[in-house]
Amino acid sequence: MTADLPMRVDPLAFAGxxxxxxxxxxxxxxxxxxAALPRLVRGLTEGQAAxxxxxxxxxxxxxxxxxxxxxxxxxx
Length: 76
What we know:
Order of helices and strands: EEEHH
Largest sheet: 3 strands, antiparallel
Distance between the termini: 41 Å
Number of strands: 3
Strand content: 15-25%
Helix content: 25-40%
Oligomer: single chain
Radius of gyration: 20 Å
Strand order of the largest sheet: 1-2-3
């Protein structure tokens, strides 16, 4: 999930759940029981706090690229 991914949250009062849709055309759907909402929020909050202690938030996705000398590739 990225910051620009469309997300819609709908309470399903008749079912005692919250529906979270990620995306538009073919969304991924997360259904969360009312009793499980505090646990989900707590888990996300703990994860966010852990990430903020390690490094400042960065936008988007990043790929780790290792630079190698020509000699290391065997092309030398």
